Amino acid sequence: MEMLFHVVVFPGLLYVLLWTVALFWFFRKFMAALHKRIGPSFNGPGGSFQTLFDLSKLLTKESITPKGVNPYLFSMMPLLAATIAMLPTALIPWTPTITVVESQYSLLGLVVLIGIEPFLLFLTGFGSDNKYSFLGGIRILTQMISMETSFFLAALSPAILFGTLSLQSIVEQSTWLSFWILLPGFGLYFIALLGLLEQPPFNIPDAEQEIVYGFYTEYSGTNYFLLKLAEFAEFMAVFAGAATLFLGGFKGLFFESYFCLFIKMIIVAVFMMAIRASTPRITMKHMLDFSWTYLVPLSLLNIAWIMLAKIFIFGAVS
Predict the structure, then answer these.
(1) Residues 118, 203: contact at Cβ < 8 Å?
(2) What confidence score (pLDDT) does residue 14 get?
(3) Tens digit of each residue's pLDDT (9 = 90 or more) over 5-30
(4) Percent of all residues in the chain with a pLDDT value above 90, rounded to a whole number
(5) Which of 24, 131, 260, 306 suits 316 as a labelling partner, its CA being 20 to 30 A distant?
């Protein structure tokens, strides 16, 4: 019964759906304040009706399957993308006692599940039989290959410092000293995540002005809703992953609970939304140059810094 509760309620399907709706509302409210948008500010109490309007519109629109598409890829990929995006929640230590799947290799599972999502989105574009969707999918693969090297190297920083691949152990060993040591890695991790999630300034795969809407172009109705569900569920996974790896997870100043982890997730979300609202999209050429010329070398330097800090700072204090 306990496992069923975790799978269905917390941190399972119902929690993911609630998080998706709440984050969507928070996202619209935050962007409305920065961009002075009217709908999310005045439609209903706290702009909540706007979120209901958006969700009802997505769920009631007709799902159209164009001629010539690969019927299996086109129909299966939205559901598969949403399912894979939810799986990392099973590896996150939400409280000192709640981790659905405890493993000494949970960090590897987390980065693999986060890293595989762009490939699934590529398949959505590939199966659409549309040159704009296919081009958006190719851009996702290009961006994924460029950003995942830095993402993996940054995510391994806590593992090298603490000598474990277990997310639970990483949280338990986290201290204020480890936070400062891992701070450069957190910055690199966050930047690489923006690329993996196709968020500004790296929203190149779904550039409306250039390729209509990228891999989303042919999707509508429930299928489009599932792709958006996958996007916001992945937000939850990466926010929780960042808080767990670099910010102490469920640890707080005076107590340990899910509330501490939730606050840290919201802080990471606010930073991402602020960047989204204030930065223009860069070109593919600039993204590639930035990734391979700056981000990857800095990630390697960060690994060297973590090794030195473990020997001369962290190890000496411990």
Answers:
(1) no
(2) 86
(3) 877 788 878 888 888 888 888 887 88
(4) 40
(5) 260
- H or E element at residue 217: none
193 with 265: CB under 8 angstroms? no
**Rounded distance between C-alpha atoms, residue 292 and residue 192, angstroms:** 12
Q: What residues does each domain of the chain span?
A: 1-60, 69-317
Please report the pLDDT score of residue 165 as a whole number.
94
CA distance 296 to 47: 41
Q: What backbone phi and psi angles, to 5 degrees, belong to 251?
A: -75, 135
Match 């019964």 to its residue by tokens. Answer: 1
Find out whether 302 and 188 touch, Cβ atoms under 8 Å: yes
Distance from C-alpha of 73 to C-alpha of 71, rounded to nearest angstrom: 6
Q: How confident is the model at residue 265 (pLDDT cuts 50, 70, 90)?
A: very high
Contact 304, 179 (CB under 8 A): no
Would you say 242 and 268 are in contact if contact means Cβ atoms under 8 Å apart? yes
Q: Which residue has the tokens 């706290």?
A: 46
Cα–Cα distance for residue pair 143/304, rounded to 1 Å: 25
Q: Do 54 and 21 form a contact (C-beta atoms < 8 A)? A: no
Position 259, amino acid: F
Instruction: Supply 81's token pair.
Output: 């993308």
Using the structure block, give the residue that is written with the tokens 């659905």: 100
Per-residue pLDDT averaged across 70-99, rounded?
89
Query: Which two structure tokens, joined as six digits, stand for 194?
Result: 């923006």
Which tokens hold the place of 131?
């040159």
Amino acid at 32: A
Grade residue 109 by pLDDT with cuts at 50, 70 and 90.
Answer: very high
Dihedrals φ, ψ of 256, to 5°?
-120, 125
pLDDT tens sequence across 182-241: 999 999 999 999 998 888 889 888 777 777 777 888 888 888 888 888 988 899 889 999
Which residues are 256's β-sheet partners?
A: 251
- Return the pLDDT at 41: 62
DSSP letter at 204?
-
